[in-house]
Amino acid sequence: MKPQAEELTPGEMKALGAFFQSKVVGPRPARDKELLAVGKYIFDRGNQFSGLPACGSCHGAKGLGTPQLPRLAGQHPRYIEDQLKQFNKRERTNDNAIMHTIAAKLSELETHAVAEYIATLD
């Protein structure tokens, strides 16, 4: 994205900012109630058997993030799943290896469930 952004004029940047600011982000409606229950459990409590910490313990109880950590609430589930997979494969490395350790502890079902749950947060 950086090469494209470098080509923009200040006016184009301002127009792009206004466009994205006008977009309304909202929670995704629940689809599979049982899957969401698993995702909520992982987000709120983690998995004591695999040593997985709760997502909310770092990203905030509602997934709104902190000054140091990103907001998760409302993110598209595919995006969350892709990021977790990239952390697990060490393809994404901007986290001081914290998320590498966490992503490695998630099962495929847990990854999918927590991604679906995060999408419902507002």
Set down the secondary structure blueprint:
Blueprint: H1 2-6, H2 10-22, H3 33-45, H4 56-59, H5 77-88, H6 98-105, H7 108-120
Structure report:
There is one protein chain. The chain is mainly alpha-helical. The protein is globular. It has one domain: Cytochrome c-like domain (Cytochrome Bc1 Complex, Chain D, domain 2). The model has no long low-confidence stretch (mean pLDDT about 90). It has helices at about 1-5, 10-20, 35-45, 55-60, 75-90, 100-105, 110-120.
Question: Summed up, what is this model?
Answer:
The chain is built from seven helices and no strands.
Characteristic terms for this protein:
mainly alpha, 7 helices, Cytochrome Bc1 Complex, Chain D, domain 2, heme binding, metal ion binding, 122 residues, electron transport, globular
